[in-house]
Amino acid sequence: MDISASLIAGLLVALLAIFTVVRAVRIVPQARARNVERLGRYHKTLNPGLNLVIPYIDRVHPQIDLREQVVSFKPQPVITEDNLVVEIDTVLYFQVTDPRAAFYEIASFLQAVEQLTVTTLRNVVGSMDLEKTLTSRDTINSQLRGVLDEATGKWGLRVNRVEIKAIDPPQSIKEAMQKQMRAERDKRAAILGAEGQRQSQILTAEGDKQAAVLRAEGNRTAAILEAEGQSRAIDEVFQAVHRNDPDPKLLAYQYLQALPQLAQGQGNNFWVIPSEITSALQGVSKAFSEVLPPSPATREKPAADDAAAAKAADDTAEAAQAAAEAVADAAEADGRPPRG
Fold first, then answer.
1. pLDDT at position 301, please?
2. Exposed, middle or buried by CB within 10 Å (0-12, 13-18, 19+), for 44?
3. For residues 331 and 220, what is the distance between their CA atoms, to the nearest angstrom?
4. Which of 66, 126, 276, 305 is most buried per CB count within 10 Å?
């Protein structure tokens, strides 16, 4: 009986010793920390690795994560300066730098950071209108980070970054913004269309101008070339006439040849017979009835057969006489005597 009691007592002592050793050894993971209280007062902070404490005297609190933490808060209603309620969703990046202050200076540092973020956000956004709130996220983030970092420093926290994840205005404001954006797009499209049309008209006008200039240049060049051609032709005729030394008889013959062309016009109801026609006819008859004097032309060509020359002279005289009679008949048919 005594042996059994001693055995049980020995087992209890062994179990108690093992339990005491287990409670005396604390292993802390990397980037974690645990606060130790001795007899109700803060004693030390356990660092990562193997740590020894006094069982039943030291109290080891739950470990605190020293890594950077990301907390996303639910959307909070915020009133802007122009009295519009917007829902703002924020994301906070913070890190515990002092485990003792994070445990003893604030009851729940995570809840405290959330509430401080909400209040600071309302103060910052409350001084902005909706348009500025939507376009000033960087300003809001920097102001939030400055206020939170200063306030949470005594809690052993460091706020690394604050981000505005979403800003949701009311549905009516969204519809108005969509209409405004649609109007702006239509305006830009109309402006671009007008600019394109203006550029097209400018380019068309420039093309027409260049085409007109080129046409004018072409017409001027053509006129110059035509005038030069006519000048050369007149000069050649003039030089040829002077080289052949014409007399009045040849000119009278050319004059008679031009008379039928003058009478061929459809509007020639009244024809004035020049007074020189009689003398011209006489000159032609005399020219072909007499022997031509020597000239450069006659000197260059051999003399024709006398019979052929006499026959040509007779034909020419008859033609001149017929032309004179035709002129007289035309004058009588018109009912007016020929003017001489």
1. 43
2. middle
3. 46
4. 66
Cα–Cα distance, 122 to 87 (Å, whole number): 11
For residue 69, what pLDDT is reported? 92
Tokens, residue 110: 């995570």
The tokens of 152 are what?
A: 């949470």
Please report the sign of the dihedral spanned by the C-alpha atoms of residue 252, residue 254, residue 257, residue 258.
negative
CB 129 within 8 A of CB 190: no
Which residues does the chain have with pLDDT short of 70? 1-2, 241-242, 244-340
Read off the pLDDT of residues 171-213 as tens digits, 9 standing for 90 and up. Answer: 888 788 788 888 888 898 899 989 999 999 999 999 999 999 9
- From CA 274, how far away is CA 62, in angstroms rounded? 141
The span from the first CA to the last CA of the chain, in angstroms, equals 188
Cβ 280 vs Cβ 320: under 8 Å: no
